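As a warm-up, study this chain.
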Amino acid sequence: QVQLVESGGGLVQAGGSLRLSCAASGSGFIFNAMGWYRQAPGKQRELVATIIAGGGLNYADSVKGRFTISRDNAANSVHLQMNSLKPEDTAVYYCYLLALKTIWGQGTQVTVSS
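Now compare it with the structure written out below.
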């Protein structure tokens, strides 16, 4: 059974950077897409960034130019480099893998102080 393990969240001041990582354990799964959603208190979960099979990238408009998603095929992992962080980026960030079904990570807290 595939599991996702996230790391890299924390507290940072506005303008700072954080790097999130998500590693998929297991093998033999079909990769259709992998990336990150986030959910702030009182708000719906929203897509942040994703890599789709074939290498296409998608970003939320609110993070374009600041966040970069990348994939390490050998390690079955994705990374999210977050620069120029803003207080409104504060949320729990969830990694997901779209295989035959959607698999979610446990979430990691990102807090950006003003």
